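Reproducibility note. Readers wishing to regenerate the assembly model reported in the main text can use the exact inputs given here. Chain order matters: entities are listed in the order in which they were concatenated for prediction.
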Amino acid sequence: MITIYDIAEKSGFAAGTVSKALNNYYGVNSETKRKILEVARQMGYTPNANARALKARHSYNLGVLFYLRDSLDLTQHFFIEILNEFKRVTEAHDYDITMLSKGKDLGAEAFVKHCRIRQLDGVLIFGDYSSDLVQELMRSEIPCVGFDYLGNLIPGVMSDNYEKTKQLVLKLIEMGHERILFLTGEDNFVTEERKRGYADAFRQAGKERLACVRACYSNPDLCNEMTAKLYPELRPTAILFPDDFSAIGGMNALRQLGLSVPDDVSVASFDGSIFSQLTSPRLTCVYQDVKKIGTALAEKLIRMIEEGDDNKDLITVEAEIRMTESCRSIR
Amino acid sequence: MITIYDIAEKSGFAAGTVSKALNNYYGVNSETKRKILEVARQMGYTPNANARALKARHSYNLGVLFYLRDSLDLTQHFFIEILNEFKRVTEAHDYDITMLSKGKDLGAEAFVKHCRIRQLDGVLIFGDYSSDLVQELMRSEIPCVGFDYLGNLIPGVMSDNYEKTKQLVLKLIEMGHERILFLTGEDNFVTEERKRGYADAFRQAGKERLACVRACYSNPDLCNEMTAKLYPELRPTAILFPDDFSAIGGMNALRQLGLSVPDDVSVASFDGSIFSQLTSPRLTCVYQDVKKIGTALAEKLIRMIEEGDDNKDLITVEAEIRMTESCRSIR
DNA sequence: AAACATTAGGAAACCGATTTCAAAAAAGAC
DNA sequence: GTCTTTTTTGAAATCGGTTTCCTAATGTTT
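Running the prediction on these inputs yields the following structure tokens for the assembly.
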């Protein structure tokens, strides 16, 4: 492996000077820099990130944590789309991404420890923010941003769930739907916002609301079951599902009941991930802009790391209502 | 930050001894070890992975590379499921996972360089193995394993695609299907195996085969289009799609043509990812065992790194034919 | 009791960078 | 031509571990 010492020897300059030249420091003659860079190129120099991290006390490495209530893993398609965008942006700033994990560590500090061991510069969290493990990380000195986090421990990025839910429900009401059933995800910041939106839409329209019933995110089977059970009881004309994935389960249940979407029941969901485009009819949904979200998360985290930005205000990203085939006016 | 020097000072032993105690080296008195470990615990010692990597010349860090022809990103659900399992296994062996990328680097060595810079111990590849960038990596000194790779540069892990495709087609033939259309993915090792299986099934059954037509992996829109175009021409009684995701597109096309699955056309696909369970009717498929695949990839890579295993034979993982609602006998 | 083998622990070099500080060289001022 | 200022460069310390080699201490054999 070629080191700066090899370059120093061959070029006739000292290692320190080589380092400065390589890093574009002020105070290196441009002719010297040219020579050093040329020698480095010739010899096929590869910097050693670990050596750099050791001395510089940061690693140019970011952690990504998936720690969700029901699935501890990566298999959440919607989050992966955000991560993909996050990666694109951070990569352009020379950061790498490492998956965070508890490893063999037990105890509430597992994630924090992992970050310290690897000297991670910051962390992107997709998490169950009420868990001790995630709380511990958020309270640590390590810069963190959280998707769908609302609170004052770290800055969060979130779609304007309240506003868009309200608008969607108002639209449905306008279309003649009054019996709108909202199957929600498990209780968290996002669910809360959406429920407020749902309630306020009815309030604003001066109509009686039907029901919010707690289901679960990313669980088509549960939504299938609950839809099968609740439809006969409540006779909704429209159903809001917690996400596209769950909506697929729900729609299958409706089909099994002999109902047609959207002729008998209108259906809408949240996220607008790839799943929502594969159903037939296509799903009406509150589309969360994964690109904007990923970019916002990345840029905020980098600002925190590089500029010491310590503002923890929520960053809201505008979502978009996509009215498609799965909803019909019943006037 | 607490270092081994802090522990050395407080415990009265030398730093070298502390290191040995912490790493369970031979030649440290058990009482000494106990004391040192106790002091380390008290002081809240966190090792520094970068310092260790620098001296030890390896990082306990593995790279994962997604470099596919049509999508350079993470949004391939099926691969994510494998990665998830890979992570579970490697984590238990104290390895971390870093996403590989080209970063700003141009040139064919981009990935190799990235590995060297981070001193990655090995790499898991999901790739277009014909691309220069991936080839360069496979030819390097860095231990690599590849999912769906067949060749002699690195060991690959693959489902028994030939065998299971053949069995599936034979089963369909038994069910009375003779006009079986196979929409394949783009040309690669896997596609080749499956096409062989398709051909041999017909050969074995002594029947005339209909057609293999090249489509694309993970592209529901293309499969939708091609199905719409080819169905009227070829009038298949069964269609094999390149993967679940694509099959969804194909089934939508069939529905648009006014055809029912499985009453008018039987449908099957490969992978058996989460997508295949969400369609209605459920998809018959060659299920690839993501857990076994992820485990095989992880264990092989770790053996290569830790034991110098340099056997490059293909590792075949048994797939499973899941006959469900989307196929019907037409006798 | 002498000779030898084994074990425990310490000192120091090393991994490959970064960064500070001082010296040397060049440029500018008078 | 001397003195001051600025620019370049190098030497050396440092980051936090690992590992080799050596000495001292203890245990075993005869």
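We highlight two features of this model. The CA atoms of residues 61 and 120 of chain B lie 5 Å apart. The longest strand of chain B covers residues 61-67.
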